[in-house]
Structures are given as C-alpha cells and as structure tokens.
Amino acid sequence: MIFTKSVKKIFFSIGLSLVFIGVIVFVIFFFFFPKMHNNHNANDDNFILRNGKLIHAKINRVITKKNITDNGINPKVINYQFKDSNKIYDDNFQTLEISRLDSLEQKDSIEIYLYKGQTLIREISRYETDLSLFWLLPILLCSMGILMIFISKLLK
Questions:
Q1: How many CA atoms lie within 13 A of 77 on its CB side?
Q2: How many helices (DSSP H) and strands (DSSP E) are in the chain?
Q3: CB neighbours (10 Å) of residue 142?
Q4: Which of 10, 27, 126, 149 is 20 to 30 Å from the Cα of 86, by its Cα?
Q5: What is the model's pLDDT at position 95?
Q6: pLDDT at residue 20, as a whole number
C-alpha cells in the first residue's frame, strides 16, 4: 500500500507532538509531585518513633476524604494542634484506621511523636495516597509518540 507524503507527515507530527507533551507532563510531575504530598515512608515513621519526643496534641477536627477509597474505606485526616518551644503548630495526619478514630472527637487530646518538625500519632499508622501510577501517563505518551514516528518512517 502506498501512502502519500501528507499521511507520513501527519503520523510524524502527531508522534512528535505526543513525545513533546509527554516530556512536558514529565517535567510538571517531576517538579510538582514532591510538593503534592509528604514523602513519608515506614523508615521515616520508625525513626520518628525511636528518636522523637512524646508530646500531647489537641484534635481540631477529623475529616473523611470521600474522593479517595482504598479497599472500600475512605481515609480520614486528623487535624491537630500542638505546642513546642512556646510556639503553636497545626499538622495533619492521614490514616485508614477508622476503628481507632471512632472514639476520637474534636478537642480530645492525643499523644504524638515530634522530631524536627515531623509528627506521628502514637499507635496509628499513616496512610499515603500512591501517586506512582501517574508516572505512567508521560511514559505512555512518549511511547505512543515514538511508535508513531517510527511508523511514519516505515510507511512507503
């Protein structure tokens, strides 16, 4: 089958556009994803538990995140206030441990560990939204673009 030069140009242009968009999306994700969530992991949490100081905090509110579901459970965000070095700080903690939160209400006191500005609620595990799937978008765009450029070169 013989293709015209315009068909080749269309394939090449679409492929080049997809690669360009993929690179732009990658750059945006690279610079903005670290700012979108706290990069906590289990090692950080264990370090805070071992080295942090135990202090009391007051719960301001508990919010259910209805736009996220993990195994049918919506995570809850605990907003709390604590005092350190005569300064008052606010922080948030996201968790899936709903059963432990049922008894907590606004103005209740909870124990938290504090280490260099990072906090961890005692005996409640942290929940982080997994954003790694978003990295598939620029990879997919670039792959499709490279494939279209390759096809444009193969067309006769």
A1: 12
A2: 4, 5
A3: 19
A4: 126
A5: 76
A6: 95
The DSSP-derived string for 12-47 is HHHHHHHHHHHHHHHHHHHHHHHHHS----HHHHHH
Nearest to 151 by CA among 12, 5, 1: 12
Closest CA to 70 of 125, 13, 147: 125
Cα–Cα distance between 47 and 45 in angstroms, integer? 5
**Residue 84 identity (one-letter amino acid):** D
CA distances to 74, 75, 138 from 71, in Å: 8, 10, 27
Q: What is the pLDDT of residues 131-154, one digit of tens each?
A: 667 778 899 999 999 999 998 888
